[in-house]
Write a structure and sequence with these properties.
heterodimer; A: 113 residues; mainly beta; 7-stranded mixed β-sheet; 4-stranded antiparallel β-sheet; 0% helix; 50% strand; B: 104 residues; 5-stranded antiparallel β-sheet; 5-stranded mixed β-sheet
Chain lengths: 113, 104
């Protein structure tokens, strides 16, 4: 069965650069979630979208923005990157945005040099 | 927001042993999920279990929503069960996880 696809799998950037992470949800899933997992930390919710509209907002820094497109894929844009942004970024998708199981992608590992 | 507390924080087992992981919530939950993060970092959804009991092979989970807790049972543990087990109450708040190490 098709799963959540994230790209790239790995990304290396330098401080103050920008990065864009992409997430392709499971077909027919209309909700996308973004999480950040720092080294040794549990996943922290950043933001979610339902039907192309922001549905919930977590601890997403102002330097980050995200959107969900008409084909339901989502992109997380990160600017002015800092060393502390080095983390594993997960995307999850679900069918419906309330009381539905989330299915995770394999994550994008972002390293800031 | 809802507080999620997982116990134990760490667990070391010998292969073949059984274990129970617990997740407590500070408020009622409608959307409880258990995840396993393997040593390679992949997050796998184990159970979506807002209430009741479900079983999948050697794993089973029970959620008692009225008492605000959920349990994950692992029987006949294998080394591939090692990793971190998270519960998520569905409003995007993960617990701190239980780190399970299964020794051969």
């Amino acid at each position: 069965a098709a799963g959540v696809i994230q790209s790239p799998r790995h990304l290396i950037k330098e401080k103050r650069e920008t990065a864009t992470l992409k997430c392709y949800p499971i077909p027919r899933h209309d909700t996308v979630y973004w999480y950040q997992q720092g080294p040794g930390q549990d996943p922290q919710f950043l933001i979610s979208f339902y039907e192309k509209m922001q549905s919930d907002k977590g601890s997403i820094p102002d330097r980050f923005s995200a959107q969900q497109f008409s084909d339901y894929h989502s992109e997380l844009n990160m600017s002015s990157l800092e060393l502390g942004d080095s983390a594993l970024y997960f995307c999850a998708s679900s069918l419906g945005h309330r009381n539905q199981p989330q299915h995770f992608g394999d994550g994008t590992r972002l390293s800031i040099l | 927001g809802i507080q999620v507390e997982q116990s134990p924080p760490d667990l070391i087992l010998q292969e073949g042993a059984n274990s129970t992981l617990r997740c407590n919530f500070s408020d009622s939950v409608n959307n409880l999920q258990w995840f396993h993060q393997n040593p390679w970092g992949q997050l796998i959804n184990l159970f979506y279990i807002p209430s009741g009991t479900k079983q999948n092979g050697r794993l089973s989970a029970t959620t008692v929503a009225t008492e605000r807790y959920s349990l994950l049972y692992i029987s006949s543990s294998q080394t591939t069960d090692s990793g971190v087990y998270f519960c998520d109450e569905g409003k995007s708040t993960f617990g701190d996880g239980t780190t399970l190490t299964v020794k051969p």
